[in-house]
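User: Modeling request: complex.
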Amino acid sequence: MAGAGGGGCPAGGNDLQWCFSQVKGAIDEDVAEADIISTVEFNYSGDLLATGDKGGRVVIFQREQENKSRPHSRGEYNVYSTFQSHEPEFDYLKSLEIEEKINKIRWLPQQNAAHFLLSTNDKTIKLWKISERDKRAEGYNLKDEDGRLRDPFRITALRVPVLKPMDLMVEASPRRVFANAHTYHVNSISVNSDHETYLSADDLRINLWHLEITDRSFNIVDIKPANMEELTEVITAAEFHPHQCNVFVYSSSKGTIRLCDMRSSALCDRHSKFFEEPEDPSSRSFFSEIISSISDVKFSHSGRYMMTRDYLSVKVWDLNMESRPVETHQVHEYLRSKLCSLYENDCIFDKFECCWNGSDSAVMTGSYNNFFRMFDRNARRDVTLEASRENSKPRASLKPRKVCTGGKRKKDEISVDSLDFNKKILHTAWHPTENIIAVAATNNLYIFQDKIN
Amino acid sequence: MSADVPEAASAEEQKEMEDKVTSPEKAEEAKLKARYPHLGQKPGGSDFLRKRLQKGQKYFDSGDYNMAKAKMKNKQLPTAAPDKTEVTGDHIPTPQDLPQRKPSLVASKLAG
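Assistant: Request completed. Predicted assembly structure:
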C-alpha cells in the first residue's frame, strides 16, 4: 500500500537522510552518444519511471510491489518495457538532419489498465500505449498450437478456446503520431488537466493538439517576427497549469515568463501576465542575457506557484505577483567568475531542468560534477549531493558536498577548478508522493530514497 | 569644454575598473573581450538565436545517402560515428559522416 512511513507528502529535502537505492546503466568510461539520457519522468502514481535517450529509445522502469519474502526489494525500480520511440530522419527539402533524441516524455493520467505517454523529438510527438498481456487463448479450432492452419476438412469436432496464463509480456505500440506541425525544434510538451488536449512548443510557436486528432493542430502562440533579423528572443519552455485547463505559461531566452489564458482569444500572442525580475542596469554584462535564459519552467502541484531555472539560479514565482520572484535559490553562484571559460566551452548554454517534490515544500535541480542541489523552502536550507559510483553501496547515506570558492580548501571540499564540467546533471525527477528521486548522470540513472524505508 | 572631457573619461574608466574588481561577471566579460575583440556588437542577440534555430543543417547528395542507407539497412542503429573530417572518393557519405558544421560564434584567433 503506498503510504510510506513518512505519510503521503513528507517534508522537504533536508531533515531527511538521502540514501543510494539503485543505479542503472553501464559503467564504461567510453559513453556512446546514443546512451546519454535526455529526459526522466515519473508517472502520476510514481509506480512507473520513464527515461528517454539520445538514441531515440524509451526505457520504462516499474516499482516492485511489496513482497514479504524479499523485503529489501520493496520500492526497487526494474525494467518494465523498452522500445525505440523515434528514429533519425533527414528532411531532404531543407537539408536538415532530424535527431532521434527524445527531448521530453510526459505521461497521461491512467484511465484503464494500459499506460499512455507522449514522447517527442525535435519535430514529431508520438502517443505510446504500454499494455500488459498475461493470458493467451489456447485450443483454437482452425489453427494448431504453433500457429499452422489446420485443414478444415479434417476437423471433426469443435471446441471452445480457453484462456491460459502466460509469462507477462509488456507491449508498447504507437497509437498516434503528431507530425509536421513544427518548423523549429520542439522543446516542451504538456498534457492539459482536461486530459483531452496537450500543447507542444518549439522555439517560436506553441501548438494545441487534441489527443485523438493527428492531422490538425491549433497554433496558440506565434512569436516569429515578420523579419527574422528582428528576432530577439525564443520560447524555451511551456507548461499547462495543473488545474486550470485554460491557462498555460511559456518562458523565454530573455528570462521572462508569460502566462496566457486561452479564453481571452484564439491566438494568445498577448499575455495575461508577464513575469520579469527587474535588472540592475549597471550590472549588465555580455553574459547577462545568456545566463538569464530560462531553461525550464514548472508549476507547483498546488498551482499557486511556478519555478524557473536559469543558468545560475532557481526562482519561485507567485502567480499573483509579476514584478519579481518570491524566492531565489543560488545553484552554483561560484560559476559567475568562470563565465568566460564556460562560454568558450559552450557550457553556458546547458539547459538544466528543475522539479518540485510532492508537497511543494522542496525543489531540486542539477549542476556540474554530477552534483545536484535540493532547496527546502520551509526550513530555508539547501544541500548539495553527488551521484557517483563511489557512493553506491545499497542504502548508503549521501554525504553533503561542498564547493570551495576561496583560497583555503578544507578537507572533503572540492575547488571550483576541479569540477568536471562534462558530468552534468540536466534531468532530475521527484516521485509524486514519496521521497524518491531519479537523477540522470549522462548515461546512468541514479535512484535515491530517504532513510525511513 | 575640452577640459571637462578628459575628466569625464577618467571617471568612467575609474568606474569600469571598480566594476571589474567588484563584479566577477564584468571581469569575465573583460577577459572574453580581450580574447575575442571582434565578438558581437549585439551581445546575446540574434547570433545565438540563429545558431539555435539552424541546428542540424547539413548538405549532402540524396543519391549517395539512399545508397548508403540501403547498405546499412540490416544493421543496427548507427552509433556515433568516429570523427571524420574528410570524405574520400571511395566512401559513400551519410549524413552522420559529414563533418559537423557547428558554427562557432567566437571569432578565430587567426582572424585577429
